[in-house]
Amino acid sequence: MNKKKLALSDLSVFSFQKKAAKEEQGHTNNSNVEKNDENTERGNWSSKTEYLLSMVGYAVGLGNVWRFPYLAYRNGGGAFLIPYTIMLAFAGLPLFFLECSLGQFASLGPISVWNIVPIIKGVGITMVLVSAFVSIYYNCIIGYSLYYMFASFQSRLPWADCSEWSDKTCSKTPLEMCNMTTNYSNPLIVNMTWLQENNLTCANQSILRLPYESPTEQYWDKVALRRSSGMDETGEIVWHLALSLLLAWIIVGAALFKGVQSSGKVVYFTAIFPYVVLVILFIRGVTLAGARDGIEYYIGTQSDITRLTDSEVWKDAATQIFFSLSTAWGGLIALASYNKFHSNSFSDAILVCVTNCLTSVFAGFAIFSVLGHIAYISQKPVSEVAQSGFGLAFIAYPAALAELPVAPLWSILFFFMLVTLGLDSQFASIETLTTALQDEFPKYLRSRKPHTTVICCVVLFLLGLVCVTRAGIYWINLIDHFCAGWVLIIAAVLELIAVGWVYGANRFIKDIEMMIGEKTWLFWLWWRACWYFISPCLLLIILLWSLVTFSPPSYGSTKYPAWGIAIGWCMISFCIIWIPILAIIQIVRAKGSLWERIKQVASPAANWGPALECHYGERYKHLLAAKTKESHVNVSYIETDEFHGPMTRL
Q: Residues 102, 609: contact at Cβ < 8 Å?
């Protein structure tokens, strides 16, 4: 017997086993994975509750509070709920269900999951880039809310009255003068206060109405933002906003330090607390004088059913439901990828979508009851005090809160609610980035989750500093106008075409049934119709409509310079350009004729399927054979007189 060869062979066996054990330990020894996780490489949600709360927190964001109520009021009140519900069924829910099922089935993030149709892998990069752009400015809005919350810790809210920071146009009531000049006297113009003190009146035709701004408007512009005259005047960094932004990023980084294992615990508070505050604000609001008028304007007797004949109403409903559910951002795929394989993605999608829509409707009651009160005490119609977006959150509603007894308490609650609403969405957006990076580079990043999270937060914080300069609000509005619009609709349409037509809706349904069990043909009829035709067509109509009705962005009366609009188009181009670039790269790497290459990259990748071998089943048993074959590729055999043993090629 050749002892030398046998010893070498034994050593080879030992080296092979040791290396395999080390690799296995490297995969499982991940601080972000718990012992009871189904997927020991990526980890899973600790419980179904954490997953659902995270999904609800991601879908329910600032737009539910500051955009939907105003849209409903502007588009016919209660009548708006009809197109809103229809668009939920035809556009929102089908795409939501598709993304949740896609991420859960493959246990992959928004880039790697496109192994299902490699030719459009660029769609995943587009989703991640949009999430990155939006994360930059979204945390600035959370910073605004933090600043206002801290500013509320005073015996009297600083924006309750005009102060040393205001100018002569600041007033809580309209600035009116009376022209008492006659043909027989010198010019005489007096203010209305003097007339009232002297029991005099002024004829309507003699009243001069001067431009004025409320204290909340001037506080927002002159104190909080220190807003410059336009995008051309960048100005210095507003340090109280920069510190608020830093705090927001520290909170996000700390919550996501261990990925879903840590953020899943945080959402128990951040996802539930906003509902507690909304209920409190609703109860307080409906007890105020004038609250009934506000609710009537929102969704009551002032509803106008005739508005349903206006196509703009249907476009607003479709747009709102699409963006409200956070589809095509990549976040749904990322969050669902940490779900356990046999979780019911269908019931999850229904629950989250219904919760999101009901939250929007309920938030409107809390908002408009208070706006009705401010309209009552200021003797204005509700239409003059109702606003959306920044105007509602930082001007109209703070003005209403300032008039309530114990105003600081209500202000702290309101802005803390905005903070928690924003944080949930921000958690998911950053998780989208880190998950995408880790799934693309698992060897280097999967075991370094904390490092990846910290680096992402630091980089995005630095990029966001431009949004806390004196021209910061213009940058925020610009990014929101361009990045959070058409790009997402384009990504959604391509996503539906890829899964429904290229991969095949019937094949995808079989994949879903591996997770949730077999369903009847009638059950899938609706989803087939939506994935094949209805949802893509609706989204294409919205996209074309948006392009046709495009108007350059503006902030109030301030117009954007040409170079600013050019930057907006560059951001859109930077997000979309990866779709054709990745498609070309995939085709070039394939083999055969051009048509054969296209067919190859339009077919699922060889490794497409469930992440774990125990879920392969009959449909994906070929993956097990492929893994077994791959494990022997780097193994050779050394023949001895009496022994055959493997030795790794080192």
A: no
Under 8 Å between Cβ of 461 and 438: no
- pTM for the full predicted model: 0.87
> Residue 224 has which token pair?
């909080």
Distance separating alpha carbons of residues 449 and 278, to the nearest angstrom: 35
Check if the beta carbon of residue 446 is closer than 8 Å to that of residue 30. yes
> What would the pLDDT profile of 139-153 be if each residue is shown by its tens digit?
999 999 999 999 999
Half-sphere exposure of 127 (CA within 13 A, CB side): 36
Residue whose C-alpha is closest to residue 611's, from 624, 601, 600: 624
Q: Which of 110, 52, 55 is nearest to 495 (CA)?
A: 110
What CA dihedral angle connects 240, 244, 246 and 249, to 10 degrees? -170
Degrees, nearest 5: CA angle 565-571-574: 140
Residue 329 CB neighbour total at 10 angstroms: 26
Q: How many CA atoms lie within 13 A of 141 on its CB side?
A: 28
Per-residue pLDDT of 200-259, as tens digits, reads: 677 665 666 667 888 999 999 999 999 999 999 999 999 999 999 999 999 999 999 888
512-567 tens-digit pLDDT: 999 999 999 999 999 999 999 999 999 998 888 888 888 888 898 899 999 999 99
DSSP string, 247-279: HHHHHHHHHTTTTHHHHHHHHHHHTTHHHHHHH
User: In angstroms, what CA-CA distances link 596 with 119, 416, 584, 586?
Assistant: 13, 57, 14, 12
Indicate if the pLDDT at residue 35 is higher than 60: yes
How many whole angstroms separate alpha carbon 400 and alpha carbon 386? Answer: 11
